[in-house]
Specification:
Porin, 16 strands, mainly beta, two-stranded antiparallel sheet, 9% helix, elongated, 3 helices
Length: 379
């Protein structure tokens, strides 16, 4: 009886597996949820160092920019640091970011605060009634987040951190807000006397954004019941209900290794795999060379990276006009995903006040280049 029951169960399992496979075959091979998330400015690299290293920085992030890239790296910093960055993004938009970190408990723990704002202003409003914008009315977009980070070293090889965010999205006359968290871990060890770091991060786990405000106010003329004559009536006030959209969640696995390391210089190579909820999986490769100029306290750090995202496959326009429809057709796609830049920093000793500036340029193919500038101070 037991054998017969086992055979029946195995047959049912095989049959259900066949049905499941038949159902799976009916699902399109690519069901990526393009365009289904909001507040995608949360995915922009806020600092020049991170932008120059593309999507491959979360394992090496042990400065104040770890507030964004990997909160686990903040407790490895060992001193306080401030960074202010500005990004001249596409289509005349701008992204501004600032972060400050402060260690405590002899450097084993750290907290930090960050704020980022993306948007534009002064754009004319076009409507069906005013297709030329003769009314001179304008609108603005301001997407902002505020973050608080806590990071702790649990051993000499492992640290973890969490960032809590408040996100606000102001689009013209409507707005929405959400709460999100970032989680990060960092494992750091040595191989052959050279540092190796692995990181796992999840960004923007949180609630949905559902917009509301006077921009959704409307008037509606009610239809008469079936079979009754329509009579004149005043339009009734109404309010449109916007759909709630999730935040752009992203999972990252990264690895960084010091291929060359001396007391005066270091060459780090980096790699990262990313899986967002609104795009196909991608990866990034990068390298950073850091060298100290003798005992002057100056440090130079050139950087370069390449980021691959399958969805970024738009071809350059074929029009003879080099700036057709706002695109730069002379750039093409050959450099799409490349980023490079560098930084110069000064700090005399381990307890002095330090200053630094970083720059990055990232290529977006026919969309043009994006420039990022960061200013930092440490103490």
């Amino acid at each position: 009886m037991r054998n017969r029951s086992l055979i029946i169960a195995m047959a049912a399992l095989a049959l259900s597996g066949g049905v499941a496979r038949a159902q799976i075959r009916q699902i399109p091979g690519n069901n990526t949820a393009y365009g289904t998330t909001s507040a995608e400015f949360l995915l922009l690299s806020p600092t020049a160092r991170g932008a120059a290293l593309g999507n491959a920085f979360s394992a090496l992030a042990t400065d104040v920019s770890s507030l964004y890239y990997n909160p686990a790296g903040l407790s490895q910093l060992g001193h306080s640091e401030l960074n202010v960055s500005t990004t001249s993004y596409l289509a005349g938009t701008k992204y501004t970011w600032a972060g400050i970190s402060m260690p405590f408990a002899s450097g084993a723990k750290a907290v930090g605060f960050s704020v980022g704002s993306f948007g534009f202003s002064g754009q004319p409003i076009y409507t069906v009634e005013d297709p030329t914008g003769a009314s001179a009315r304008t609108y603005s977009v301001a997407e902002t987040y505020f973050g608080f980070t806590y990071s702790q070293q649990f051993s000499d090889r492992f640290s973890a951190g969490v960032t809590a965010k408040y996100v606000n999205d102001q689009l013209g006359d409507v707005s929405a807000s959400a709460i999100a968290v970032d989680l990060g871990t960092s494992f750091h060890a040595t191989i052959g006397g050279r540092a190796i770091r692995a990181a796992f991060t999840v960004q923007n786990l949180g609630s949905n954004l559902q917009h509301g405000g006077k921009g959704l106010d409307a008037t509606v003329v009610r239809e008469p019941p079936t079979g009754q004559v329509s009579v004149p009536q005043d339009a009734a006030p109404a309010s449109l209900q916007a759909k709630a959209w999730p935040l752009p969640v992203q999972f990252r696995v990264a690895l960084a290794y010091d291929a060359f390391s001396t007391p005066m210089s270091r060459l780090s190579v980096l790699g990262e795999f990313s899986q967002p909820n609104n795009n196909q999986p991608g990866f990034g490769l990068g390298a950073e060379y850091s060298v100290q100029l003798g005992t002057s306290g100056l440090e130079l750090a050139p950087r370069m990276s390449y980021t691959y995202q399958p969805a970024n496959s738009m071809d350059a326009p074929t029009s003879t006009d080099a700036t057709y429809a706002g695109f730069n057709s002379t750039l093409g796609n050959g450099a799409f995903g490349l980023a490079y830049g560098g930084g110069i920093h000064y700090r005399k000793g381990t307890r002095g006040i330090g200053f630094g500036v970083d720059y990055a340029l990232k290529n977006y193919g026919p969309l043009g280049n994006v420039n990022v500038v960061s200013f930092g101070m440490s103490w």
